[in-house]
């Protein structure tokens, strides 16, 4: 933090003094000002705290999970929460139809959900930002082709497109990430294109052209930094959407293979036992709901902090 001392007569104002109009004579650095605004946003703080807990749970899964996630015990299937085996082992959240520990599978499922959400957003964001930059900056035929591709893909139902891509790439974790990435870049392209259309008219971009800067240098050094704020906000919110999409596809049987524990697979495993073993589907669904809400809270709070038009 930088403090500004104003000379009044023969003395300097002390830190924390106020001027005649009652304003504090402190000038905060941009980083300090950002963190102050972030701490004042309840949604941002709550969302970040919950996301941090889920990430910590995923990283420490081998230490926190009381049982291996794939260990089966058919004699203890569909046991309720707080079930004790004859040996004394405790299943805190019960077991599923195959006798697997629900808590262990929820903990390990967080790993898969976060991995898919983060990597799919990274892939979708990379493709979408590049397409938006090219269409907004060059315009003409490039813009027409990219925007028509966006319109065409948006007209195809997501589930239908996912089924076609599963047939092409196969049912695997990497294939699912590619599917989500190839269907999630559209929003980035439209947003970035709109921002670039206004940025390329700015004086500093025209000055770069006048000084002989090449198109790639102008695009990535002068235009690209101006689109990061909306991209970051969209990316944080899209993580939750990707997690829901993964769970939906896995629930339908075209997502992650059954050997990988995911929240969507757990919900699908318990759909036939809701009346007699509600915890099998309800508890992983609750974990997914809390995590997605935390991501949305974090994204909304980050938007309020980064967008100067929303500052009071």
Description:
- The protein is mostly helical.
- It has one domain (43-69, 91-310): MetI-like fold.
- It has helices at 30-40, 42-59, 61-64, 102-138, 140-155, 158-169, 173-184, 186-199, 203-210, 215-223, 228-251, 263-269, 279-306; strands at residues 2-3, 7-8, 11-12, 26-27, 83-84, 90-91.
- It is elongated.
Which strand order does the major sheet show? Answer: 1-4
The low-pLDDT segments are: 1-27
Largest sheet: 2 strands, antiparallel
Overall mean pLDDT stands at 82
Order of helices and strands: EEEEHHHEEHHHHHHHHHH
Strand fraction: under 5%
| Secondary structure tally: strands | 6
Structure classification: mainly alpha
Rg over CA atoms, rounded to whole Å, is 25 Å
Percentage of residues in helical conformation: 55-70%
Quick one: CATH superfamily? MetI-like
List the helices and strands and how they pair.
Blueprint: E1 2-3, E2 7-8, E3 11-12, E4 26-27, H1 30-40, H2 42-59, H3 61-64, E5 83-84, E6 90-91, H4 102-138, H5 140-155, H6 158-169, H7 173-184, H8 186-199, H9 203-210, H10 215-223, H11 228-251, H12 263-269, H13 279-306
Antiparallel strand pairs: 1-4, 2-3, 5-6
Quick structural gist:
With 312 residues, the protein is mainly α. It is 64% helix and 4% strand.
Key terms for this structure?
single chain, 312 residues, mainly alpha, MetI-like fold, two-stranded antiparallel sheet, 4% strand, elongated, disordered N terminus
